[in-house]
Amino acid sequence: MTRFTFAFFALFAVQGFCFSAFAGSYAPSHPDPVEEPWRWRAFPETRGIGVRCIAEGKDGAIWVGADTGVRRYSEGEWRVYTQKDGPGAGPIHRIRVAPDSAVYVTTQEGVWRFHRWEWTRQQEGVPASDPFQGQGAPRLQTRDGTVWIGGEGCLTALRGGTRKVYSLTHVPLFGPLLDLIEAQDGSLYLASREEGLFRLDLTEARYKTWENLHAACSSSDGPLWFLTQDSAVVRQEAAGWTRYGVGEGMMDSPAQVVEGPDGVCVCGSHRGVAATGRWRGKRWEIQRHPGLARSLCCACLAPDGSVWFGSEGAGKGEPGGLLRFNREWRHFTDEEVGGIGDVAALASTPDGRVWAGGSRGLHVFDPLRLAGARSGQASTSSGQGGRAWRPVAQIEELTGPVTALHVTPDGDLWVGTRSAGALRFDGRTWAIHNTRTGLPSNGVSCIATVDSSLSVVLDHNRGILRQDGQGWVRTMDADLSAETEGLFQDRQGAVWLNGVSREGQWKAIRYQPDRDPPETTLTLKPDRVAPSGNAAWEWIGKDPHHSTPQEELQYSHRLNGGEWSPFASQRGYLFLSIPQGTHTFEVRARDRDFNVDPTPAVHRFVVEPSLWSTSWWIWMGAFLILGMVVLVKQIIQRDRQLSEFVSVVSHDMKTPLTAILVYIDNLLDGIGGGTLTEKQARTLRRARDNGERLTRMINDLLDLSRMEAGKLRLHRTSFPLTESVREVVEGLQPVAGEKGIDLTLTEEADVYVRADRDRIEQVLTNLMGNALKFTPQGGRVQVEVRQIDRTARVGVSDTGPGIHPNQQEAIFQRFHQVKKEDMGIGLGLAISKKLVELHRGRVWVQSQVGKGSKFFFTLPVEKRGKG
Amino acid sequence: MSKKVLLVDDDPNILEGVGDRLRTYGLEVRCEATAAGCYATLREEVPDLVLLDIRLPDGDGLDILSHIRVHHLALPVLMISSIRGAEQESLKRGAQGFLAKPFKGEDLKKAVFQVLEP
Predict the structure, then answer these.
(1) Is A700 in the same domain as A837?
(2) What is the distance between the alpha carbons of residues A122 and A244, in angstroms, rounded to a whole number?
């Protein structure tokens, strides 16, 4: 309670005083650009080549003549001209550019002319004298009238009668300077024999530095406001610079200038006490706030028109905290705010909330809570403020020191912290940007919106980064050699950057982003891509006036109007497996000021279809298949026709054969005629035998043709195989007896098979008939029936001549005859083999020439419940 | 009284040769070369046995067999054909026997008398 009472006392004890003194003029000072290291650029490619002379072509290319030939630098690339395509690798004496844009190069051998990308030799055999022998120091007069003289590791400038000698140790540039030129863009090129080519950017259009100043704000009525290192406020407007020091009514230590609802406000300290000030058009109205803190260091304007000030350096008995002015002053003590400590940054979001960042984290003020408390409890103590302010404690990163606060035009709040990165609050959720999400450092010193994209300045001169929607990009290459303290974009679009050098000197740097987008050109573009769909593109960008060096341009590409790739510095891309068809490739460049080429380089190309998807290939394939189908159909039809032919012919042959045999039989039996002589009867019997043989042949042919046409039907029944074998053996016993052959049967117990009995007997007859046929008189034919596991095996062995091993396969092929004088047409074994195979059995032969043969065939045994 | 046999075949040589042979067995043989002739004879007089070829110029012997099985249930039929595969079908349709052409004289005798004098 005592503390709140004290706070009230403090508020009403504010002392007001006014000065209406006249303002003084201010003379700003700039550092010498030659001494700003970041304005210098070395070209390491030229180091050690003995640079002798420099020239700038009409096209802006830089020509370098060296001990070892001539080189051309353009658009970030060096081109070395060799003996083959230029004056060779000898020392270059001089380079001159003619008004017709031709470049003349003088060497020991003569003069060469470079025009329209071609070298021609001008004077042959006239050796030129080397001007570098005994030549004095190079001199150059630049357009501003300064005379530059190159020396041994130093540069002398003569301006308006004064002479300044720069020792170029900070570059570093040692040894004698041999040539100096001023380029069209106002930069100076220096040739050092030892260190190569250097560029000194003397232009102020892009970067300009003011010493002893801190850019504070840009007010809506036009002027820019600065703080000076000697504790004054400076106003810059078209009319000039105006300084407001203590003598002009300013407080003795101004800390910040902000624009309030009705004019510019200053906060800081006066005579060791926190103070605020308002610009009243012609004079400053300063108010001291004793008993609060030593100083008010930051301020912000809330949407309701109130101005907030944050305090720092609260001593013993001083409550610290925040001060609000909205027609009347209101103090929120450090305790009411929730223990914020020294306030470092203030910002307010469009929803009316005020955010304060301090050494002890981020705190937020909700005006609705204060209003609610007021309407609920009339005229209570200032303790209500404690409810309106609260620390943002739910995010751990926000409990440490806060260094910067910024509200984007979209209303997002950005919080910069000393060691936890940057955090974004969109009104509902917090997003953290730190080293884990691509920020190079977690120490953030200031945050600002530059050209509608967010920029973050990192602590300890670690760089300025810009967000491009996909990541963080380094920007503004100015080397401050100092700690950066503030960043903002003024109403004219220039970016202001404040720094303090190691020696403690203040600097304000103005960076002027350009608005000219770069141009993008494709240097490698395949018009027709092979069916694999792999193709590479290469491109190059060019920023007008080279305001962004070529190597700093970034590019983004896309295929067929899809998503643009993230901007990257790579100048080529290899696409893999692009599908066939017509495609469009686009690439666009972006300079470091985020100007994107509005007319991307467009390239339409065709991925050729693969061979098998070309129309002629498809047609050929279709014809091939069609042809094959027709061919196969024809073959099948011809095969069927052949089978039918064989079948019809066989049947038709059988009819006359039947008649012949009937007539012969009738004659032999004496039907319809007298008796025959013995010789006549013998002749007729022979004719009948031949007729019967012809019948067998025809039947064989019919069987085979039917089997090959798949028309043979098997009439399977279950029968004992042994019985069938026995019947066939018995049926052939007379034939065996005639030849004196011993035909025997060895059988096991009944083996049942399920098969076409007639056909199996046909096979048996064939095998046994063959055995009897080839076995000589007095030989032996043995038949055996065995059951081996689930298989019945029939073997027929003879003591015939045997079959040669290379014939043993062939005998099962149709129309194969072992001997020409055979009694058949060689179909028997082929038919037997097919018949057995139709019964899922197999046929084979074991034979030894001179000893005999043994034919086997197998059949599956039928599963039977009983034997 | 001798048994009557109707011999149906499209080949006149077979009609002659087989007819002669059957007659020596003491049978009365009537020969027909067409299906139409066969049907006409059957309408006229029912024989004791029909020897029937399958391939006829104006019809199929198997159809005649089916007709006989419907109209002359007890009339025995012996099929004679060079189509060996037709044996199963013939027996299925009710033929009493099947003689595959060409056949021997004694086989014919055996088959005929097996049917006529069982």
Answers:
(1) no
(2) 68
Residue A672 has pLDDT above 90, yes or no: no
* Residues of chain A found within 8 Å of residue B83, distances taken between Cβ atoms: 651
Nearest by CB: A654 against B17, B18, B102: B102
- Mean pLDDT for the stretch of residues A641-664: 82
Q: How many CA atoms lie within 13 A of A118 on its CB side?
A: 4
Per-residue pLDDT reduced to its tens digit, A206-245 = 788 888 999 999 888 889 999 999 999 999 988 889 999 9
Compute the average pLDDT of residues A338-351: 90
Write out the E strands in A26-117: 40-43, 51-56, 62-66, 69-74, 77-81, 92-97, 103-107, 110-115
- pLDDT confidence band for A371 (50 / 70 / 90): low
| ipTM here | 0.88
**Chain Cα centroid distance, residue A180:** 45
Residue of chain A with shortest Cα separation from B101: A658
- Calculate mean pLDDT across residues A313-340: 87
Q: Which residue has the higher pLDDT, A639 or B30?
A: B30
pLDDT tier at B52 (50, 70, 90 boundaries)?
very high
Task: Write the CA distances from A197 to A132, A139, A188, B44, integer angstroms.
Answer: 17, 16, 11, 134
Predicted confidence at residue A725, as pLDDT, reads 92
Clarify whether residues A541 and A663 are in a common domain. no
Joined tokens for residue A224:
């820019």
Chain A nearest C-alpha distance from B36 (Å): 21
CA-to-CA dists, residue A845 to A724, A852, A854, angstroms: 21, 11, 6
Chain A residues closer than 8 Å to B21 by CB: 662, 665-666, 669, 671
- A826 has a pLDDT exceeding 80: no
Establish if A479 belongs to a structural domain.
no
Q: Which of B16, B79, B82, B83 to mutate to test the interface with A (most CBs of A within 10 A)?
A: B82
**Position with higher pLDDT, A105 vs A863:** A105
Domains in chain A, number = 5
User: ∠ CA A228-A234-A239 to the nearest 5 degrees?
Assistant: 145
Q: Other C-beta atoms within 10 Å of A636: how many?
A: 11
State the Cα–Cα distance between residues A470 and A454, nearest whole angstrom. Answer: 12
Judgement on whether residues A20 and A145 belong to the same structural domain of the protein: no
Distance CA A404, CA A358 (A): 9
**Residue that wins the pLDDT comparison between A68 and A406:** A406
Q: How many CB atoms lie within 10 A of CB A562?
A: 10
Q: Verify that A828 and A700 share a domain, yes or no.
A: no
Q: Name the superfamily (CATH) of residues B4-116.
A: Response regulator (3.40.50.2300)
Domain that holds residue A844: 713-860
Alpha helices (H) in A205-341, listed in sequence order: 334-337
Q: Which residues of A touch B13 (CB under 8 A)?
A: 656, 659, 662-663
- Whether pLDDT at A15 is above 50: no
pLDDT at A637 over 90: no
Same domain, A59 and A91: yes
- Phi then psi for residue A853, to 5 deg, are -125, 155
From the list A116, A118, A121, A117, the residue with the least C-alpha distance to A106 is A121
Indicate the average pLDDT of chain A: 84
Detail the DSSP E strand segments found in A543-600. 554-559, 572-575, 581-590
